[in-house]
Amino acid sequence: MVKDYDNDEEINKYLDTMGYNIGVRLIEDFLANSGIKKCRSYSETVDIIAKVAFKMYLGITPSTIGGNDGGNEFSLILDKNPLVDFVEELPSGRPSLSYCNLLSGVLRGALEMIHLPAEVTFVQDRLKGDDVTEIGITFLKKNDDKKSKRNK
């Protein structure tokens, strides 16, 4: 990809798109094999992502930091990130490259498929010198059709 794209932003976007396409397909496998029921809140959803999905597919269990006042912003803290096990440092001249955008895309795609659109970003990355890898998840508010129908 580094050879195919001119700058880091294009590579990061491509990695996110790849991840999104994986997430769109992976959610079906996850729902079939995990046996979970419908989550009742954003915090429960993030808990399932951390404790079940990451364990199933990456063999790790990130810790969660949750909730702003609106209850729709959360962070997953990865003490270990298997995606970067074989990467010692970013290529020279590529300071804004984010290999982990693949994970952002996977989460975004899977959440979208269960009608929970979200913005998923990397807040911290060990490859860039941070102490931990932190993934930020902001659930985008959706219109509640039931409420709007009652108000008519």
UniProtKB/TrEMBL annotation:
CDD domains: TRAPPC3_bet3
InterPro entries: Bet3, NO_sig/Golgi_transp_ligand-bd, TRAPP_component
SUPFAM superfamilies in the cross-refs: Ligand-binding domain in the NO signalling and Golgi transport (SSF111126)
Compartments, as annotated in UniProt: Endoplasmic reticulum; Golgi apparatus, cis-Golgi network
Pfam families recorded: TRAPP
Coiled coil: none
Subunit: Homodimer.
Protein name: Trafficking protein particle complex subunit
Organism: Staurois parvus
